[in-house]
Automatic annotation (TrEMBL):
Organism: Phocaeicola intestinalis
Protein's recorded name: Outer membrane lipoprotein carrier protein LolA
Keywords, in A-Z order: Lipoprotein, Signal
Top-level taxon in the UniProt lineage: Bacteria
Taxon lineage: Bacteria, Pseudomonadati, Bacteroidota, Bacteroidia, Bacteroidales
Pfam families (alphabetical): LolA (PF03548)
Gene3D superfamilies linked to this entry: Lipoprotein localisation LolA/LolB/LppX
Length: 205
């Protein structure tokens, strides 16, 4: 009987450990540690925009590439084509034959949005004092909720939610909740980390 009890304890101990609650600080530390190892990321994405007033959804697809610390290419491929490139302090937006280049330092709001886009997919938001952060473990993943602290961000977003895959050590889904009731879900697929990226894709000139 004693041997049986010992065997039972050994078998159930891992289950008890897995069921334990992990603290917010521990989750943030783990995500931040993993984010620091990501130098480049490339993936496909599906973006679903839900508009409260129209009661409809707009689904678009594309691909994303980013490099630490300040390079991002966000490219929509369907149902329309549109390219957004962040390179250091400049943003390039291209739609059809029109291309606009903006110095983000001259537009505070634009700078904030560009930073959110980059930091969200990399999981770097926790060092940004612009947000109050909560984090929990849910359904085998980490879920981090970011509440805007700055006036400009509060006017746009009520919260940003990141779903973090613990096994792959990366963000898999980003939810943006706007003040007007609209919300956007961005799901990342076919993610590749730390593979070489041709710097030419970030050309904003």
């Amino acid at each position: 009987m004693n041997r049986f009890l010992l065997w039972l304890v050994c078998c159930l101990s891992p289950l008890a450990f897995w069921g334990q609650e992990i603290s917010k600080d521990a989750i943030i530390k783990e995500i931040s540690r993993s984010a620091a190892t990501i130098k480049t990321m490339q993936c496909d994405f599906v973006q679903t925009k839900r508009m409260k007033m129209l009661g409809s959804e707009l689904v678009s697809k594309g691909r994303m590439s980013c490099s630490q610390p300040d390079k991002l290419r966000w490219e929509y491929l369907s149902p329309y084509t549109y390219t957004f490139v962040l390179y250091k302090n400049k943003v390039m937006m291209k739609k059809g034959e029109r291309t606009d280049v903006i110095d983000v330092n001259s537009n505070r709001m634009f700078k904030e949005i560009a930073a959110i886009m980059l930091n969200s997919v990399l999981g770097n938001c926790f060092s940004d004092k612009s947000f109050e952060v909560d984090a929990k473990q849910e359904n085998g993943q980490y879920v981090a909720t970011l509440l805007p602290m700055k006036k400009e961000m509060k006017m746009m977003f009520s919260r940003i939610v990141l779903h973090y895959d613990k096994v792959q050590s990366m963000v898999r889904e980003v939810e943006l909740y706007e003040k007007n009731g609209d919300n956007t879900t961005i799901t990342l697929t076919h993610v590749r980390k730390n593979e070489p990226i041709d710097e030419k894709i970030y050309d904003v000139e």
